Amino acid sequence: MQISDTPLLVKTHDFNVWLLNHTKRFPKHFRHTLTERLERLALDLEQSLTLANAARGKDRRRHLEDADGILQCLKVFLRYTQDFELLSSTQIKFAAESLLELGRLLGAWLRGTDR
Predict the structure, then answer these.
(1) Contact call for residues 36 and 78 (beta carbons, < 8 A)
(2) What three-state secondary structure class fits 3?
């Protein structure tokens, strides 16, 4: 199976692998709330970007806008990992920087669809 090698898709996939490796260590009482939501949002983000990559025109823009909304929600829910001390400060910093970079790449792609 070939995965697109656009920087945004590669970095999203890498972030998701990192996140999934860390959420499996979260306490069980977070499993059906925060952990599940974080994992679902991360995977939904990658799905929206993959669909956008395959689409053209208005459909591409719609998928990119969906991805942008998902990315914003992912940032909000990631803050809970800091509030409940589920990730170390170094891990939080890595995650925040990764999401900022994904946002910049997504914003550039969105701006490119205006042309």
Answers:
(1) no
(2) coil
Pick the closest to residue 45 from 73, 23, 4, 26 (CA basis).
Answer: 73
| Separation of alpha carbons 81 and 86, rounded Å | 5
Domain edges within the chain: 7-113
In angstroms, the Cα distances linking 17 to 10, 24, 43, 65, 83 are 11, 11, 10, 23, 22
From CA 54, how far away is CA 6, in angstroms rounded?
Answer: 12
Q: Helices marked H in 1-115 — which ranges?
A: 7-23, 36-54, 57-83, 89-113
Name the residue among 30, 109, 110 with its Cα closest to residue 77. 30
Fold of 7-113: de novo design (two linked rop proteins) (1.20.1440)
Residues 6+ apart with CB under 8 A from 87: 22, 81, 95
pLDDT tens digits, one per residue of 46-102 = 999 999 999 999 999 999 999 999 999 999 999 999 999 999 999 999 999 999 999
